[in-house]
Design goal:
- The chain is α+β, with helices and mostly antiparallel strands.
- It has one domain: Beta-grasp domain (Ubiquitin-like (UB roll), Roll).
- The chain has two helices and five strands.
- It has helices at about 35-45, 50, and strands at about 10-15, 25-30, 65, 70, 85-90.
- A five-stranded mixed sheet has the order 2-1-5-3-4, with helices on one face.
- Strand 3 and strand 4 form a beta hairpin.
Length: about 100
């Protein structure tokens, strides 16, 4: 008897703006929330935490997260549920002229 295929895992992708400062791994994880997925990325590269989160573990002002193409508007509570196979993009906003 064959095992039933498991649900696809959420994937987190960091944009290349952050790559100028630190390693930005692509993460596939069985996490079920955004917070857990971020923690999986921080386990690979702990210095990434300071670029993404502030000292209260909220998203930094110039970080934007999209889950399956939809912008996340909360910054404080990152226990946002992720569907199996979700794609999360983490952007560092650019400013200047």
């Amino acid at each position: 008897m064959l095992d039933a295929p498991s649900d696809p895992m959420p994937r987190m992708i960091f944009t290349q703006q952050l790559a100028r400062f630190t390693e930005v791994p692509e993460i596939d994880t069985d996490a079920t929330t955004l917070a857990q997925t971020l923690e999986a990325a921080f386990a690979v590269n702990p210095s990434l935490r300071g670029y993404v989160l502030d000292d209260q573990s909220h998203l930094r002002r110039h970080v934007v997260v999209f889950v399956d193409g939809r912008r996340l508007h909360v910054r404080e509570n990152l226990d946002v549920p992720l569907a199996p196979g979700a794609t999360v993009h983490v952007f560092q906003s650019l400013s200047g002229g």
